[in-house]
Amino acid sequence: MTIQQSAQPDILNANCPSRTVLRHITDRWTPMIVTVLTPRRQVRFKELRERVQGISPKVLTETLRSMERDGLVTRVVTASVPPRVDYELTDLGMSITRPIAALRRWAEGHVTEIEEHRQAYDNALH
Amino acid sequence: MTIQQSAQPDILNANCPSRTVLRHITDRWTPMIVTVLTPRRQVRFKELRERVQGISPKVLTETLRSMERDGLVTRVVTASVPPRVDYELTDLGMSITRPIAALRRWAEGHVTEIEEHRQAYDNALH
User: Fold this and answer.
1) How far is B66 from chain A (nearest CA, A)?
2) Cα(B28)–Cα(B6) distance, integer angstroms
3) Directed axis angle between helix A57-69 and helix B111-125, to 10°?
4) Where is each HTH hxlR-type domain found (chains A, B) (predicted)?
């Protein structure tokens, strides 16, 4: 395989860092976390954990850290006893909410149709 | 954990089948395959393999089969010697091209900004 480095970012290019960006924003939990943080507001870890059903505390922590590292969310620490920690989308994080909402609506809106396709496909094989 | 089955599909619900739909449309290669198949046209396996850099023939075959099972692509077999096989988006597949193009543009358009965030985050830790 030849290595082609294009001047413009291109997800089809194996060496383009936009692939990692795409992987992060489409990882298993990021779209759901973005969904809970939309519309923009501060949300506590506990609420995120409850709303994103099935996520473990460890994986939620790791995903939030990765999103914070990428600049999508910010941790807001309030000095209280115990200290209160909230998560909030940054401006960069806000800019991904519309594409993610479109994906989510598509997934939620086409469940029945896709299940019918799967059924027909599987029936045709047997 | 209590099992809640909501009437409306909801990706935040651990038992909702829309989660599987979301996983499929955001899997590692599906957005890239959709990108190559857009605008709608028939594309041969060989071209898909060349344009989606880094994908193995085995994984491309598996991903196309999963997309065909979900009703996103159709295999078009032309009777020739050897038979020619092309892949094309269905109407359902076409309906996902816009959300996926938005994601792709976002990923390609924010590479530099995200890399700067990562650098700043890592520097702050050390």
Assistant:
1) 9
2) 29
3) 110
4) 16-115
Does the beta-carbon distance from B71 to A117 stay under 8 Å? yes
**Interval B25-41: pLDDT, tens:** 999 999 999 999 999 99
From chain B, pick out residues whose CB is under 8 angstroms from the CB of A56: none
Task: Please report the domains of chain A, with CATH numbers, ordered by start residue.
Answer: 18-125 (1.10.10.10)
Indicate the residue of B25, B115, B121 with minimum beta-carbon distance to A17: B115
Cα–Cα distance, B27 to B70 (Å, whole number): 13
Distance from CA of A18 to the nearest CA of B (A): 5
Quote the tokens at residue B17. 């089948």
Set of chain A residues whose Cβ sits within 8 Å of the Cβ of B12: 32, 35-36, 51-53
Mutate to test the interface with A, among B16, B24, B25, B26 (most CBs of A within 10 A): B26
The tokens 């383009």 sit on which residue? A16
CA distance B8 to A108: 8
pLDDT digits (tens, 9 = 90+) for B49-96: 999 999 999 999 999 999 999 999 999 999 999 889 999 999 999 999
**What is the complex's ipTM, to 2 decimals?**
0.91
